DNA sequence: ATAAGGTTTAACCAAATGGTTAACAAAGAT
DNA sequence: ATCTTTGTTAACCATTTGGTTAAACCTTAT
């Protein structure tokens, strides 16, 4: 029986370092030497544990995506009401991303660079689909509690309002002339602001 | 008097090629040889006209940003009503980006990678600020035509709903299970869908 | 103790890459 | 016509980079 967990685990050190560097510089911008330095180890060890840059990257990307996928799934597959889903997702997502500010950029950038990743990840992770959400929304529209809107459009809007500010942070900070603290405060406000905005937009009057 | 415009202009060829490659691969992922091939010229010519990869990139980035900045400026500085601004921006922006689908990704990615770009660009382009929009919105809130909302938040929401779908295209296509045509159709719908959504959200009932 | 297996390192390597050079071609200017 | 400037190319160069190797170092089961 091989117990690998001596109190300093090289493999974990590498993954953490790779996460930092890849999220900061992207696949192409990252250097293996840089990752090794960040992890405080010899470069050859990276290849000993993860064979190639590509494989190391895919491991990191997969891990990052696994963190975000369940949150999106919660909009689509939970059993709560549309209104509750919007409230919960908005609050939870903004809280989560405030602690992982590089994540969305990293994921969307690499997803755009290499479309294959989606299909790769789709196979290994329980990947959400829109079907259940669609039926739920159609029911509420029929009941008349919600104005007519396509599930796809509402779904896009929910994601957009929550995720975009973090993708556009440098631009937003510059145009609204806010410093780091004020920006964070704006995001904090959005935990309720965004859900009110959406619910206002779709509630029948 | 030096008339440079013989009917094939190498400098323009290079810029067009660089635009394609940089937008597809990013600063780090692009290869000078690849740009030369795309332009159909010798690699040394790139350096003859633009000295270094960095400078060529900055020229391309600047040009790209110059295309988007005036559109954002129109939300902030136009003299029309808030409602008209939202309608016009939504329609114009989605039309514009549908013809330049790589643009937003390119800009936001490089802006996140290298924050200095913002200050560089800010100096050379008439860069929009939020002040005028803020006053306009405060007036409308006081009049009671619009529910209370911070200018910053509304501005972020407008940008988010319009820009995000293009940044998240691969993810959205995958989750909503739509092909290229259906996606384009969704975006076409959004030209009115998004402005209705926003106006619904902020109109006092 | 020591043999065995996993872990770590310094040194090395080939390919790729941004950039340069020197020679050549084309186009104006005189 | 020829001289000068501008545009273009093939060949070259130094450095960077992902990846390999062979030896050294631990840990541990016997």
Describe this protein's structure.
The structure is a homodimer of 205-residue chains. Chain A contains eleven helices and no strands. Chain A is an all-alpha fold and 205 residues long. Chain A folds into two domains: 51 residues, Homeodomain-like (Arc Repressor Mutant, subunit A, Orthogonal Bundle); 142 residues, Orthogonal Bundle (Tetracycline Repressor, domain 2), CATH 1.10.357.10. In chain A, helix 1 packs across helix 6. The first copy, chain A, is globular, with a radius of gyration of 20 Å. In chain A, 36% of the residues are buried. The interface between A and B is large, with 56 and 56 residues. The first copy, chain A, binds a DNA duplex (30 and 30 nucleotides) through helix 3.
Write the layout of secondary structure elements.
Two copies of one chain form a homodimer.
Chain A: H1 10-29, H2 32-39, H3 43-50, H4 53-77, H5 82-99, H6 103-113, H7 116-124, H8 131-143, H9 151-167, H10 169-175, H11 180-202
Helix pairs in contact in A: 1-2, 1-4, 1-6, 4-5, 5-9, 5-11, 9-11
The first copy, chain A, binds a DNA duplex (30 and 30 nucleotides) through helix 3.
Taken in chain order, the helices and strands of chain A follow as: HHHHHHHHHHH
Number of helices of chain A: 11
**In CATH's first tier, which class of the largest domain in chain A applies?**
Mainly Alpha
Number of strand segments of chain A:
0
Q: Biggest chain pair contact, residues each?
A: A-B, 56 and 56 residues
Determine the strand fraction of chain A and express it as a percent band.
under 5%
- Low-confidence runs of chain A: 1-7
Oligomer kind: homodimer
Shape of chain A: globular
**How many domains of chain A?**
2
Share of helix of chain A, binned? over 70%
Q: Report the span from N to C terminus of chain A.
A: 66 Å
Radius of gyration of chain A: 20 Å
Do you know the CATH topology of the largest domain in chain A? Answer: Tetracycline Repressor, domain 2
């Amino acid at each position: 029986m091989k117990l690998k967990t001596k109190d300093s685990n090289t493999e974990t050190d590498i993954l953490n370092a790779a996460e930092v560097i890849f999220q900061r510089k992207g696949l192409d911008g990252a250097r293996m030497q840089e990752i090794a330095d960040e992890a405080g180890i010899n470069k050859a060890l990276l290849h000993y544990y993860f064979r190639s840059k590509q494989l190391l990257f895919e491991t990191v990307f997969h891990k990052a995506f696994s963190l975000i996928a369940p949150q999106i799934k919660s909009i689509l597959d939970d059993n709560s009401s549309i209104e509750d889903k919007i409230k919960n997702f908005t609050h939870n997502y903004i809280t989560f991303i405030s602690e992982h500010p590089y994540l969305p950029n990293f994921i969307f950038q690499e997803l755009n660079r290499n479309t294959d990743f989606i299909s790769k990840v789709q196979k290994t992770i329980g990947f959400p689909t829109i079907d259940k959400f669609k039926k739920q929304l159609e029911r509420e529209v029929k009941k008349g509690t919600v104005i007519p809107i396509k599930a796809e459009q509402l779904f896009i809007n929910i994601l957009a309002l929550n995720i975009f500010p973090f993708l556009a942070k440098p631009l937003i900070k510059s145009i609204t002339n806010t410093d780091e603290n004020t920006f964070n405060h704006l995001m904090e406000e959005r935990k309720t602001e965004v859900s009110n905005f959406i619910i206002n937009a779709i509630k029948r009057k």
